[in-house]
Amino acid sequence: MDDSSLGSLHRRTRQNHGYPGVFLHPATDNASWPSTDPDDQDPGGGSGAARPWWRRPLTIALAAAAGALAVAYVIGAIATIGEVPGGTTVAGVAVGGLSPAEAQAKLTAALTPRLAQPVQVSAGDRTARFVPASAKIQVDYAATVAQAGTQSPTPWGLLGSLFGGREFRVMSSGDDQALNAVIAGLRPAVDRPMTEGDVRFDGVAPVPVQPEAGQELDETAARQALVTEWANAADVKLPIRTLQPKVPADEVRRAVDEIAKPAVSAPATVRGDGRDAAVTPARIAAALRFRAGDNGNLVPSLDKDKLGAVADKLAATEKQGQDARMDFSSGSPVVTPSTDGRQIDWDQTLAGLLKAITGPGDRAVQAKYTDVPAKVTSGAVKSLGIKEVIGEFTTTGFAQDSGVNIRVVAQKVNGAIVKPGETFSLNGYTGPRGTPQGYVEAGVIEEGVPAREVGGGISQFATTTYNAAYFAGMTDAGHKEHSFYISRYPAAREATVFQNPDGSSVIDLKFANDSATGVAIQTIWTNSSITVKLWGTKHVNVESVPGPKHDFVNPPTVTKSDASCKPVQGKPGFTASDTRVIRDLGGKELSRHTRNVRYNPEPTVVCAGSG
């Protein structure tokens, strides 16, 4: 077959097998086909054979471009290995294309000054400012850079660094105590108290209090926000809790119209047994209170203490009860019978009064009474096993004014009962020891020098009681010795007490009755002595073993210039000890305890100008 025949065959088979543009070429050695493409013609005008596809200029140009891109990719991949990906920013600082060390250095330079600059925070509708350094916030620069990773060598990674960008947060931590202080400082600017719906009075005129929502910082979430967002946001949003009132405005209106106004519209009366007490509208307004109920309603009540003389006037209709006590007037303990009391049940009475003053009809109510059983009954005292003296002690030598106070406190304590398992407190049992209770001004030691106070001298009664309990085998539940040694008391075996002017306890004497039987306290006062006896059932024998005095310290000298100054000869200080040995009635030792006491030297007082 000649060339023309082959060309004819070629043309006839161009659409062979149904594939447009697909040519079937017979397998002929060194065959070349004519081309209609001018670029395929031999420029030398030779035989006219077509060039191979890989030698065509377009193919060569594309190959060259691909090669250039490949070289650029390789160079770029190699050049960016280990760098922070391009386009990376941290808190607005561009660190892309830098090594991790360079990125850390740049962030340190950019963020360190910002730690000392105020940052705005907002919480709800309130704004404030805080300085990150005040919360001791520290930046972990290594962790901050590490979260961005390093440049990926893949083509897509390189393209992302060229055309993309990522923003990362600063990794910080703060000091809990400092953060708490910052939160506390922000609270006045951020917190807003909720106003509950309520009704108050201006004189006898009801005043509605409209409900208003409040807000407060969510402390835990706010601390986290300060640490994580201080560098990442121009305005740090602090989470808050909204405080919603329970009582709606319409309930406030109802309470004013249906409760408050009727309540103060006229006087009312509380009728007791044989005596009445009038309640004026002004007293009702002062005593009427509202609280928010669980269902959003306002619940009214009356405060007895605000009713003024009403309770005092009706107190005469009540009967006070009396606990059973021990009477020692015959020389041995005799149980005095207990009596129950009868008192007004003010909860029930005021509930009835409230109903009367807010409803139609009579504005009067009958007081409700209730029986009040004695706390300590005669039968209970008789069953305590109080039959013999188990511990006693006597002290002597006190001034006339101190003696008055010792007598008053002794009368108060005489007959007191300490049940098994109970603890006796001298301050708690006597209550306030002031002028209204019959106490007078007497000598005390104040700041190392003599002084005078109401109730002075009670420490002698405390020492006497402590020793009676000591030898009765009671458990020491708390006591304190005098700062200076007083010679009429046994060293390391004495006690002092002290109260504030309002009667609150400062230094107390306490002992616990850990025995199975009760204890009664008997006091015997004379013009020159005080004796305290503890009665009960004897279970143990107690021995006191005093130790030698040692470590003496000479007294200092104090010069005073006031007109009331009195010279005092000082006394040395020293250390003393006492060992209490407790044995059962058969002589077996049960316990041995040593108490060491350091007594301060008593200063020598010199009055300026006296010599």
TrEMBL record:
User: Where is region (Disordered) located?
Assistant: 1-51, 320-342, 547-572
Check the record and name the InterPro entries matching this protein. Answer: Glycopeptide_resist_protein, Vancomycin_resist_VanW, YoaR-like_PG-bd
In what ranges is there compositional bias, type Polar residues? 329-341
A Pfam family: PG_binding_4
- Which keywords has UniProt assigned to this entry? Membrane, Transmembrane, Transmembrane helix
- Stretches that traverse the bilayer: 60-81
YoaR-like putative peptidoglycan binding domain location, by residue?
A: 282-359
Is this entry keyworded Transmembrane helix? yes
From the Swiss-Prot or TrEMBL record, give the protein name: VanW family protein
